[in-house]
Amino acid sequence: MKALFIAAASLLALSASAFAENKTSVVLVHGAFADGSSWSKVIARLQKNHTEVIAVQLPLTSLKDDVAATQRAIARAHGDVVLVGHSWGGTVISEAGNDARVKSLVYVAAFAPDSSQSTADLVERYPAPPGSAGIAKTADGYLYLPSKAVSEDFAPDVKSSEQNVIAATQGPIRADAFGEKVTHAAWHDKPSWFVVSRNDRMINPELERAMAKTIHAHNTEVAASHVSMVSQPEAIVRVIEKARTYSD
User: Fold this and answer.
1) What's the CA angle centered on 222, arms 218 and 227, to 5 degrees?
2) For residue range 35-81, what is the model confidence (pLDDT) as tens digits?
3) In terms of C-beta density within 10 A (0-12 exposed, 13-18 middle, 19 or more buried), how is residue 188 classed?
4) Beta pairing partners, 194
5) How many Å from the N-terminal Cα to the C-terminal Cα in the chain?
6) Which long-range contacts link 161-170 to residues 24+ away (Cβ below 8 Å)?
7) DSSP single-letter state for residue 128
8) Residues 209, 193: Cα–Cα separation, whole Å
9) Helix, strand, or coil here: 104?
10) DSSP states of 54-81 as a string?
11) How far is 114 from 95, CA to CA, in rounded Å?
């Protein structure tokens, strides 16, 4: 037993030493109709480069609750933090990114509301994307995507087996959360990157481009669906690495 304990401690020390090579950690924040596993391909690639990664599991019950979950993840991370948000996760990082340890923000097909602005406020400015018609609502006010909507609108450019997993693991979001306003948008104070999904059917790509311009982000476009981190993880990792190694 003692030998097993010593071996485990050695492995932990080696792991900590490896992550210390990259002193900036990455905290990944998923969106609505997803969970932390949506980042699995990105996580594997970042860890291969000895980067510490934490994927938040959002309760999706309110903006306040989701920000609190993200803040707990930031507190666990070592060193500075690159905060990455997908879809609804962009709204979350716009608030949670005010943490002093967050050095930069990455928006992946994400919402980027301004101070005193909600996600719903942003959506109302552009024509509704095709995927919005497929969103279903539970009796107690939570939104989710039926399997057909996942395969046709949310993740049409990934394998059917992956679509099935996304549909099964999705986190329904409380509909009222989209009306909650950000108090102070962190992108006013932190350098930001934005990855526009050119073939997005869940957020209007024109809205994504407009948000990227508004927040003065380093902008990248990919020919991908809403889930570019699943269909094109290499492109997302490249952007995260730019944000991680960026210096003023």
Assistant:
1) 105
2) 999 999 999 999 999 999 999 999 999 999 999 999 999 999 999 99
3) middle
4) 107, 219
5) 50
6) 162/230, 165/37, 166/33, 166/34, 166/38, 166/227, 166/230, 169/34, 169/35, 169/37, 169/38, 170/33, 170/34, 170/35, 170/144, 170/145
7) P
8) 12
9) strand
10) EEE----S-HHHHHHHHHHHHHHS-SSE
11) 10
- Going by pLDDT thresholds of 50, 70 and 90, the confidence category of residue 2 is very low
pLDDT of residue 22: 54
Asked if 84 and 27 touch (Cβ cutoff 8 Å), the reply is yes
In the sheet that 136-137 helps form, which strands lie side by side, from edge to edge? 136-137, 142-144, 173-174
pLDDT in tens, 108-126: 999 999 999 999 999 998 9
From 248, 239, 245, 176, select the one nearest 28 (Cα to Cα): 239
Specify the pTM. 0.91
Q: Are 83 and 29 within 8 A, CB to CB?
A: yes
Dist. CA 13–CA 133, nearest whole Å: 50
Give the burial class of 101: count Cβ atoms within 10 A of its Cβ; 0-12 exposed, 13-18 middle, 19 or more buried. middle
Give the pLDDT confidence score for residue 23 in this predicted structure.
85
Question: How many Å apart are CA 196 and CA 187, to the nearest integer?
Answer: 17
Cross-strand bridge partners of residue 136: 144
**DSSP classification of residue 150:** I
Q: Indicate the pairing of strand 81-86 with strand 22-29.
A: parallel
